[in-house]
Specification:
alpha+beta, 6-stranded antiparallel barrel, globular
């Protein structure tokens, strides 16, 4: 197998972030290959695409969520793995609706929506609105008579369980001293933070059981490009309940590199359904009104239109399950730098063919984040090409990084590598991801 040069001119649709970037040969499983001259090349080519997380911070769109470059990604094979399905099935068993512990007043669907129930879309929206809330975050300040809370931004959230769990984004609640949710009928309740995960941008908050109905969840494996996508969120922090926009599923397995985030967001759903500031943590639905994703980012600027992104629900639910059980996620770490491997076909074309290990992290260099490599301890060496992970075919480094989000430190997996034309199975006990990587 051959690894082509990492010159950006040879990478299709290669958009590169502003600021310094590491050597392309020094890539972790959670990051795409980069080089020090790619920023300058991309700027000269004028190929810049800006992104913002779509919470409304400091009541200004994008404030606190700085723009960044969008990285081009390799085409990935498939959209859901057997491993993901197993994790989601196990997690969903925890989210069966239960009876409310205390009586609560039911939410009434607003009359303008009820009058539209002669259409399928109207019915879907009417069913969905009670499950989507506005999330208001505040910080604690010292007032003349004691602590006071000042709102600093808004986002959205989606009902996940009958126990009162609500899915939202980590970046919505990360700085909050106080969290409130506003229901579709205007009632506001204080919520508690159950747990949040910066790596996947997923967070779970909780209110009293019965206040926010759980949203039905979709099977991502049944979703296809071109399918209807319905976004429900709370743009601009406007009063009057959630807003609804309609588009299609544009693409799968997108990777976004956003400023002020140490690692990219992986495996996102792309949609052209309009998503505005304040919609972070909102719902992306399919044509049956089932939840397919949690809206998290959108493109801005003159060079791009109709680019919104959502965390796929299979990933969000698997993260939510750990957050509810443990309050945190013990993400795994292989302990390698790598990049996509390519093979050259008979007609001269190149095709993704796995993930090449550029270097095994073993503490021999000053910037190694750990002193030993889980994969190195299992027998992996530089120039091995990862072609399967836990029985799942690997075609690109990005695919491997996305797949790792469904595993946890301590899991034992079989990783198949191609070593000089020979396939070797290595049993690996995944290590804990070092902080800050």
């Amino acid at each position: 197998m051959e690894t082509p040069p990492t010159d950006v001119s040879q990478i299709p649709d290669g958009f590169w972030p502003s600021g310094p970037v590491p050597d392309p040969r020094r890539q972790s499983p959670a990051e795409p290959p980069r080089s020090s001259d790619q920023q300058e090349r991309a700027q000269r080519a004028g190929r810049r695409l800006d992104l913002v997380l779509v919470s409304l911070l400091s009541l200004v769109i994008g404030a606190g969520g700085a723009a960044a470059g969008l990285l081009g990604t390799d085409l990935l094979e498939g959209r859901i793995t057997e491993r993901a399905e197993q994790l989601v099935d196990a997690a969903l068993a925890e989210f069966e609706p239960i009876a409310a512990e205390t009586p609560v007043e039911p939410i009434e669907v607003p009359v303008p929506i009820a009058s539209a129930l002669d259409s399928d879309l109207g019915q879907i929206v009417a069913n969905a609105l009670p499950s989507v809330v506005q999330v208001v975050v505040s910080i604690e300040l010292e007032g003349p008579d004691g602590p006071v809370y000042e709102p600093i931004g808004t986002g959205s959230g989606v009902g996940l369980s009958g126990q009162g769990h609500i899915l939202t984004n980590n970046h919505v609640v990360a700085e909050a001293d106080r969290i409130e949710v506003v229901l579709v009928d205007g009632r506001a309740y204080q919520a508690e933070l159950v747990g949040r995960d910066e790596l996947t941008d997923v967070a779970i908050i909780k209110v009293a059981p019965g206040l926010v109905p759980p949203m039905p969840l979709a099977d991502i494996s049944e979703l296809a490009i071109g399918d209807t996508a319905i976004a429900v969120g709370n743009p601009l922090g406007l009063e009057g309940g959630p807003s609804v926009t309609v588009g299609i599923v544009s693409a799968f397995d997108r990777q976004l590199d956003i400023a002020d985030r140490p690692t990219p967001l992986q495996g996102l759903i792309q949609t052209d359904a309009p998503i505005s500031g304040g919609s972070s943590g909102g719902a992306l639905l399919d044509a049956s009104g089932r939840l397919i994703g949690i809206t998290t980012a959108k493109s801005v600027g003159e060079s791009a239109e109709g680019l919104g992104f959502a965390i796929p629900i299979n990933l969000a639910v698997s993260i939510a399950d750990d957050l509810i059980r443990n309050g945190l996620i013990d993400h795994p770490f292989l302990g390698i730098w790598g990049q996509t491997a390519y093979r050259i076909l008979d007609d001269g074309a190149t095709q993704p063919a796995g993930a090449t290990i550029v270097r095994v992290i073993d503490g021999s260099e000053a910037d190694d984040p750990v002193s030993a490599s889980a994969f190195g301890d299992a027998g992996a060496v530089a120039d091995d090409v990862i072609v399967a992970f836990d029985g799942i075919e690997i075609r690109t480094m990005n695919q491997l990084a996305s797949l790792m989000r469904f595993y946890r430190a301590g899991d034992v997996v079989t990783v198949t590598v191609d070593r000089a034309g020979e396939r070797i199975d290595l049993e690996v006990t995944l290590a804990s991801r070092p902080e800050g990587t």
